[in-house]
Design a protein that fits this description.
single chain; 358 residues; alpha/beta; Aspartate Aminotransferase, domain 2; 2 domains; 3-stranded antiparallel β-sheet; 11 helices
């Protein structure tokens, strides 16, 4: 079986965890602080705040920015539901904008038409590891005095015009096991704003800076030293992981680009795509998924139901019609691209897709 995702946890990660367990300090401690500093350097920001999931990173980032009831946040419906749910958690309301068919990212030409007096923030999603069009997004945000929170949960190391995602506005990363690097479960907020980082640290720890002194409403969103120890090892490997993903993606695109029924991923100029997922478009998507799975080739359909079509959002009154988003949900499918995929695997995948797509 060629799995769609395969976390790479080896002896170094096991040794790092064993060292933490032996220390007796297994909750949030010095390893978390070390991981925050190392990830901040990697992401090109001044501050990072480690939390226990990517969802928590999005949620805490918005709370630290003061987003809440009565506010609107413009984002994409073609994403994992946590993108929108994290907005709802604050009492604010997601406003969905359609996507570009080429990159699956938010269509920046449609953003301004959705801005109202209630709009507080823009939340672009760097979907599958391809950066959103950040130049335009930052210009719109500046023109309308809006906050930018980047959902970079799938885009560790991706860059736009040489600048890493998560460093334009406030970033949120996920370290779920299928991501480009993992801590088991975990997340990270990235920012150049010291005050925002201070608030985020309070929010993750029951609203306190000093033990038993609670200055604001907070939660238990802390990362453990166990997770941070894994993260430090994984961070040292991420450039190699990403290079392997890019190499596999290049092979897949070269092998599939002349297949008439298959559209391979787009990489925009000046963008570095980190291929959290290698996602093609194909009209007979569900049929091809079945054929590949029967041959032992894992696939992923991200996402078969856009967020605005999910039952919980329909119940909340959403009636959006987003044609590109809805079309992508019927055509998009992901192929194995992770570092555990070897050249022979890639050749097998290409052959199976060409035969299955005919």
């Amino acid at each position: 079986m060629i799995f769609i995702a395969k976390p790479d946890i080896g002896d170094e990660e096991k040794a790092a965890v064993a060292e933490v367990l032996s220390s007796g300090m297994i909750a949030e401690g010095k390893r978390v602080a070390e991981f925050e500093a190392a990830f901040a350097e990697y992401a090109g920001v001044e501050h990072c705040v480690a939390v226990n999931s990517g969802t928590a990173a999005l949620h805490a980032a918005m709370l630290a920015h003061g987003i809440g009831k009565g506010d609107e946040v413009i984002t994409s419906s073609f994403s994992f539901i946590a993108t929108a749910n994290s907005i709802m958690y604050t009492g604010a309301r997601p406003v969905f904008v359609d996507i570009e068919p080429e990159t699956f990212n938010i269509d920046t030409e449609l953003i301004e038409a959705s801005i109202t007096k209630k709009t507080k923030a823009l939340m672009p999603v760097h979907l599958y590891g391809h950066p959103a069009e950040m130049k335009t997004i930052m210009e719109i945000a500046e023109d309308h005095n809006l906050i930018v929170i980047e959902d970079a949960c799938q885009a560790h190391g991706a860059s736009y015009h040489g600048k890493k995602v998560g460093s334009f506005g406030t970033g949120a990363f996920s370290f779920y096991p299928t991501k480009n690097m993992t801590t088991g479960e975990g997340g990270m907020i990235s920012t150049n704003d010291a005050e925002l980082a201070r608030k985020a640290r309070m929010i993750r720890a029951h609203g306190s800076q000093q033990r038993y002194l609670h200055e604001m409403m907070g939660y238990n969103l802390r990362m453990t030293d166990i997770a941070a120890a894994i993260g430090m090892v994984q961070l040292a490997k991420i450039d190699g992981y990403n290079s392997a993903r890019q190499r596999n993606a290049s092979m897949l695109s070269n092998g599939l680009k002349n297949t008439s029924s298959v559209t391979v991923p787009t990489i925009r100029d000046e963008c570095e795509h980190m291929f959290h997922q290698y996602t093609i478009r194909v009209e007979n998507r569900d049929e091809l998924v079945t054929k590949l799975n029967q041959q032992g080739i894992g696939t992923g359909v991200y996402y078969p139901i856009p967020i605005h079509k999910q039952p919980i959002y329909i119940e909340a009154g959403y009636k959006d019609h987003l044609p590109e988003c809805e079309k992508a949900s019927k055509e998009a499918m992901s192929l194995p691209v992770h570092p555990g995929v070897c050249e022979d695997d890639v050749r097998l995948i290409i052959k199976a897709v060409i035969e299955g797509a005919e």
